[in-house]
Amino acid sequence: MMYKFRALVAALAFLLSSPALAQTDLTQTHSMIDAAAIGNADVVEYWLKRGVRVDLTDEQGRTALIFGAFGGSFEIVEIALSLGALIDRQDTGGSSALVWASSQGELEIVEKLLEANANANLQNGQGQTSLMVAAAAGHYDIVQSLLDSNANPTILDYTGRSARDWALDGRNRDIIRLLEKAELGG
Q1: CB neighbour list of residue 52: distance below 8 Å, 6 or more residues apart
Q2: Hey, what CATH class is 120-186 in?
């Protein structure tokens, strides 16, 4: 609810282009993140072009790039990357934009992040990689894309489970076969 309220303030500032409103700390520090949280690329771009830091975070360490990846906003991801967002920045739970996009099934965003050299083997706070969360969620195309980008299928999370183990939970035979083949180097 608070995100929607602050995003509304941001949208109002954007539409009115009020210099007085645009100068307030509350508006600058929260409205860009709030706009990213609800997928409003126009407001995100407005604030970023006016000097709000692209890697500004909310209380959970989430940036516009992370919100864009999680929410499926390719436009926000592109804007953040074009302005130098730290691609492998992790939120307080250790998840990067690539982990979030992989878990949500956002293939186009995953591919964009990989093209921008996101680390496909970066582990979150539970030791899970993008490959593990994609396998667990049953996102075959993302698993394939990550493997094509040299994601390591043999990495173990902090409980000793691999991406294949996560795929076994979902009983996705195609992903299991794909990961088994990758583990064997094929």
Answers
A1: 28, 29, 32
A2: mainly alpha
CATH 1.25.40.20, the chain: domain bounds: 1-95, 120-186
Helix (H, G, I), strand (E, B) or coil at 49: helix
**Mean pLDDT, the chain, whole residue set:** 86
Separation between Cα atoms, residue 99 and residue 76, nearest integer Å: 16
Ranges of the chain whose pLDDT falls below 50: 2, 5, 7-26
Stated length of the chain: 186
Q: Does domain 1-95 have CATH number 1.25.40.20?
A: yes
Q: Write the pLDDT tens digit of every residue in 31-83.
A: 888 889 999 999 999 998 888 888 888 899 999 999 999 999 999 999 999 99
Residues in CB range of 126: below 8 A, 6 or more apart: 94, 157, 158, 159
**DSSP string of 79-91, one letter each residue:** HHHHTT--TT---
For residue 135, give every residue at least 6 positions away whose Cβ sits within 8 Å of its Cβ, in sequence order, or none. 143, 163, 164, 166, 167, 170, 172, 175, 179
pTM given for the model: 0.84
